Amino acid sequence: MRIRGAVLEEAGRPAPYAGSAPIVVRDLELDPPGPTELLVRIEAAGVCHSDLSVVDGSRPRAVPLLLGHEAAGIVEAVGADVADIAPGARVVLTFLPRCGECEACATDGRAPCIPGGAANGEGRLLAGGSRLHDGARRIDHHLGVSAFADHAVVDRRSVVPVDADIPAEVAALLGCAVLTGGGAVVNAGRLRPGERLAVVGLGGVGMAAVLAGLATDDVEVVGVDAQPAKLEAVRSLGAHAAYAPAEAVAAGIQADLVVEAVGRAVAFETAVALTAPGGRTVTVGLPAPDDRASISPLALVAGGRSIVGSYMGDSVPARDIPRFAAMWRAGRLPVERLVSGRIALDDVNLAMDSLRTGGAMRQIIRFAPASAAAPTP
Fold this sequence. Notes:
By secondary structure, this protein is α/β, with parallel strands linked by helices. It has eleven helices and 18 strands. Strands 3, 5, 6, 9, 10, 17 and 18 form a seven-stranded mixed β-sheet that branches.
């Protein structure tokens, strides 16, 4: 079938991206789903800093690549071996498929799935190969999802069904921002009542960590970011205090759990500096491969501090997405407040510029409903 999607043609072009246009929105061919796969009509897709990291070249990926890894949509067709999801179901797309069989999948989310990570690195689906083409040219999949398009073919192990009462925008954010930020607090950081949580970096993932902290009883939440607008935003969410990074360090802020959600060495150093003796630093940001931080091992040993690296918040999507959806339904996790703007697919280069300058939490690409956007066979 013919679809319309946003293809990264060249990474590392100079910003602003609205001018250099590294992403081109064009018509593509999408193959039917294989036996273990589904065809999903995308309803909403979030624009995440991990997408920007591929665009600016700090996370090297082969191109051409159809971007987008945080999304929700409606299943339109299933492969012959998919028996537990039917057409019409709303699903959350997740950016790391879990095979359920490798030794990493037995770690309860602590380690990324080995076959899933390999497939993501090679730009293919878990069953092998790409389902995307531009004539004779293969287009790679982004993290097994490629959601910056009106339709996607994904592996069954890359989706989690949700009830129809979960709005598409909320469902989309559950698949990355909330899994990563909320998971960093609940799974990797194991925040306990009576503790103080500090979050360094208040983009979509960091704000999701803030929401998870606020949903925990008797927890003081502190937001840390260099952008004054982000500090205002975190206060409006209910954070007890908000500081610029240097101000937080100078004020002697110490937290039992500190989540770093920036992906830069300087932010990681700030997070460690804010970690109280006996506390935990959980880092979920994805820095450039050559980024290096300087910390004192003595401060870790003498203070009994621990550092935890966490991919996707140590989440198991099939377990944690229903948990976070239930928290949203109960009014404890207002995920919709992470949305800072809604855009059309054609504005995706502008959206990358907004991320680059720090002016956005989560921008949502909205797609036309099925009645207004029937695909071309």
